[in-house]
Amino acid sequence: MALGAWLELIGSGLITGGVYALVALGMNLQYGLMRILNIAHGEFLMVGAYLTWMVHTAVGLSPVLMIPVAFLVLGVAGMAIHFLCFRRLVSTSPNLDIFEARGLMVAFGLMFLVQNLVSWLWGGDLRGYDFLTDPVSVAGAPVAGNKLLVFALALLFSLGMLALLRATLLGKGVRALMQSSVGAQLVGIDTKRLHPMMFGLGLGLSGVAGCLLSMAYTIAPSMGEPYTVTALIVITLGGFGSMGGALLGGLLLGVVEAVGMHYTNPSLKALLSYAVFIAVLLLRPEGLFTRKTRKA
């Protein structure tokens, strides 16, 4: 296989993996901080994609300009959902295990609610639009301009999220809560304000991911669920609660899928992802990019 073909193959995997990482970062933030396994996460990605498609086709606004709009709309929706649903679960659940179980059931309900609402509003047909479809040469390999932009922006937002968590006072508070909720509250971190803000941030990132996906791919009401499953696989690869691991895991999974489909069959994409998922759970359940904790 020629070097150019390898570069094209790996580049294709990285483009897909960049979106995977962005989706997984938002979902991992919600679980690592609040222990909310939001399996409706992909449905809000789908909402971001439909909002972008609707505004672009209706008034001609550039999809790039829709990125902050999708982020704000989904971010505010996330804070409202946390206030209406998950905040009450915290006060009514006697322990963390029951809270996680109840939260999972609420997320199931949200998933079907959002999916059916979008189907009712816009129908079940595939939607899409043309945007920067001309190829661009990268290291001698042709890449569609829209896909290159999707990767660059997904990587930019992912790195920005990591910088926020590592270099700001807000990020330090989030990381403290991830490590020890009780300890963080003892030093004065207000979970009642931080939790809805971070839940909204997670859904805001899913809205950005949906906006980016609409630039290069067709969209449908059923598109969200596969991205939720993929985000779970990415989080498992990187380690639950590890934001840097989510970024690396997303890029790695994208490349594994691209190479695997090249040597097997494109229809086996899901099979490859699940095989990686099961192998990591069995061989390294703490994730590929986290240190093993030794038992005393």
Can you tag this structure with a few keywords?
296 residues, mainly alpha, two-stranded antiparallel sheet, 2 strands
Description of the molecule:
This protein has one domain (3-222). It is built from eleven helices and two strands. It has helices at 3-34, 41-59, 66-92, 96-122, 145-167, 169-179, 181-186, 191-216, 224-238, 243-263, 269-283, and strands at 135-138, 141-144. A two-stranded antiparallel ribbon has the order 1-2. A hairpin with a 2-residue loop joins strand 1 and strand 2 (141-144).
Rounded to the nearest angstrom, the radius of gyration is 19 Å
List the uncertain runs. Answer: none
State the helix count.
Answer: 11
- How many strands appear in the DSSP assignment? 2
Measured as a percent range, the helix fraction is over 70%
Distance between the termini: 49 Å
The fraction of residues assigned to DSSP E strands is under 5%
Please state the average pLDDT score.
84
The description of the largest β-sheet is: 2 strands, antiparallel
Task: Give, in order, the helices and strands.
Answer: HHHHEEHHHHHHH
What can be said about this structure in brief?
The protein has 296 residues and is mainly alpha-helical. The chain is 75% helix and 3% strand.
Secondary structure: elements and pairs:
Layout: H1 3-34, H2 41-59, H3 66-92, H4 96-122, E1 135-138, E2 141-144, H5 145-167, H6 169-179, H7 181-186, H8 191-216, H9 224-238, H10 243-263, H11 269-283
